[in-house]
Amino acid sequence: KQEVTQIPAALSVPEGENLVLNCSFTDSAIYNLQWFRQDPGKGLTSLLLIQSSQREQTSGRLNASLDKSSGRSTLYIAASQPGDSATYLCAVLTSYDKVIFGPGTSLSVIP
Amino acid sequence: GAVVSQHPSWVICKSGTSVKIECRSLDFQATTMFWYRQFPKQSLMLMATSNEGSKATYEQGVEKDKFLINHASLTLSTLTVTSAHPEDSSFYICSVTPPGTEAFFGQGTRLTVV
Question: What are the pLDDT digits (tens) for B60-93?
């Protein structure tokens, strides 16, 4: 059974810092991995999608890496801003088209 | 990518009543749709797989008689929370996954049972 974990559960950093969010999954048989952002009381915003054959994806200040063999992914956020404050969810797409979410990392960027 | 529309975005209902949530795949014919829920300060958990023209498949611990799923067409799946109680208050969200692509999610529905 696929399980997804995220470390840390919460993170508070001063504005401008670079930071790394970690995601681990137990079954390497995934189709892809997505990082989402969720603001309080809101839905999901897709940030980055990494196909199983890819190693990383970049979008602006965000960079996500994937090491499928070790079951790990990282989301790197450069030069963090207060507007980055949100919960970040890692999710893997399984062979049955189901998405398994991690518990999330709650990020707070302090001005 | 696929466009998924979910309605309503929020609903408040009285305890004991039923609430229907719609999930529409606007530009993709989905034989399968997925329903998730998220309790406060928790992550999203898969509730059930909605199958067009057949019964839904429920995850362990999800009451199929309480959460009725109907997938009568390739573009519409509905989730009905029957006899809702305050503990059913949650964020419900649906998704579709076109073959070979990624999962696309609706906007979600925030249900509050009072």
Answer: 999 999 999 999 899 999 999 999 999 999 999 9
d(CA B69, CA A100): 20
Q: Which residue of B has its CA nearest to A30?
A: B102
Quick check: B92 and B102 in contact, CB under 8 A?
A: no
Answer positive or negative: Cα dihedral of A4, A49, A93, B30.
Answer: positive
- Written as one string, the DSSP assignment of chain A is ---EEEE-SEEEEETT--EEEEEEES----SEEEEEEE-TT--EEEEEEEETT-SEEEETTEEEEEETTTTEEEEEE-S--GGG-EEEEEEEE-TTS-EEE---EEEEEE-
Q: Cβ contact (<8 Å) for A97 and B46?
A: no
pLDDT recorded at residue B100: 78
Laid out side by side, the sheet with A19-25 consists of A4-7, A19-25, A72-77, A62-67, A56-59
Residues in chain A within 8 Å Cβ distance of B97? 93, 97, 99
A6 versus B2: the higher-pLDDT residue is A6
Choose among B32, B44, B49: nearest Cβ to A101. Answer: B44
Output the six-digit token pair for B107.
């906007």
Residue A99: beta bridge partners? A93
